[in-house]
Amino acid sequence: MSELPVVSIRRLCKSFDGVEVLRDIDLEVKRGEVVSVLGSSGSGKSTLLRCINWLEEPDRGSIHIGGVRMGVDERNGRPLSARRLASIRARTGMVFQGFNLWPHLTVLQNVMEAPVHVRGLGKEEARRRAVELLEKVGMAHKRDSYPFSLSGGQKQRVAIARVLAMEPEVVLFDEPTSALDPERVGEVLAVMKQMSAEGHTMILVTHEMDFARAVSDQVVFLEKGRIIERAAPGKFFTDPDSERVRRFLELSD
Ligand SMILES: Nc1ncnc2c1ncn2[C@@H]1O[C@H](COP(=O)(O)OP(=O)(O)OP(=O)(O)O)[C@@H](O)[C@H]1O
């Protein structure tokens, strides 16, 4: 029996103020797969991630994470209770361009906060796990520092540890290196590469084409809210079917 996809999106549509931003998106992501979502500015990439994470509620279509429907109780078709929605949303973790760390908490507290308060983990267990994750991203030595004292690359590595502490089924990255100085980009990409090697399921919006090419199993290209091309990176970056993708790749060189 083949394994259920971790993420399964069917006919997803989303409009803002009557303007369709996502149209009939279908996407399946298998366990351990890395999918890069590319497209020009305004094509709907962030909105897609935000719908998967239920930061935005889709107008139509369905999203299943680990076989469980987001947003709707499948037994009765009603919206999920806030509590049930929170537990399903925790199956997805989002890494934002702007880090979104709690400024009043230390690095260690930032990583421990949600496991203790949302997952109900004991403090000692959460602390042990947080230290392990901070070691993994090379930030254990800063555990007692506050976010303001960290570089952008360091903040993003803490943000990644914080997401991993919730043990999500899929990690969503929304331009995780776009706010960083060029010399800090590599340290965050290295952590992401390690995550992919460890088998994390990841969906990635990025402008780092070389990175997308190196780590992706699947690349999808959005144009005005539709997926107009999807392919393995070898094909996508060397021999795309659409003229639109060809032009996009030329301009991103
Ligand atoms: N909350 C919102 N309210 C109204 N319009 C929105 C909202 N969020 C996004 N949009 C619009 O939806 C469209 C798609 O935006 P989105 O941010 O998903 O694109 P994107 O491909 O991620 O762009 P970029 O690469 O510039 O970040 C844009 O026209 C944007 O202005």
From TrEMBL:
<keyword id="KW-0472">Membrane</keyword>
<keyword id="KW-0813">Transport</keyword>
<dbReference type="Pfam" id="PF00005">
    <property type="entry name" value="ABC_tran"/>
</dbReference>
<dbReference type="InterPro" id="IPR027417">
    <property type="entry name" value="P-loop_NTPase"/>
</dbReference>
<keyword id="KW-1003">Cell membrane</keyword>
<dbReference type="InterPro" id="IPR030679">
    <property type="entry name" value="ABC_ATPase_HisP-typ"/>
</dbReference>
<dbReference type="InterPro" id="IPR003439">
    <property type="entry name" value="ABC_transporter-like_ATP-bd"/>
</dbReference>
<protein>
    <submittedName>
        <fullName>Amino acid ABC transporter ATP-binding protein</fullName>
    </submittedName>
</protein>
<keyword id="KW-0547">Nucleotide-binding</keyword>
<feature type="domain" description="ABC transporter">
    <location>
        <begin position="7"/>
        <end position="249"/>
    </location>
</feature>
<dbReference type="InterPro" id="IPR017871">
    <property type="entry name" value="ABC_transporter-like_CS"/>
</dbReference>
<dbReference type="InterPro" id="IPR003593">
    <property type="entry name" value="AAA+_ATPase"/>
</dbReference>
<comment type="similarity">
    <text>Belongs to the ABC transporter superfamily.</text>
</comment>
<dbReference type="InterPro" id="IPR050086">
    <property type="entry name" value="MetN_ABC_transporter-like"/>
</dbReference>
<keyword id="KW-0997">Cell inner membrane</keyword>
<keyword id="KW-0067">ATP-binding</keyword>
<dbReference type="GO" id="GO:0005524">
    <property type="term" value="F:ATP binding"/>
</dbReference>
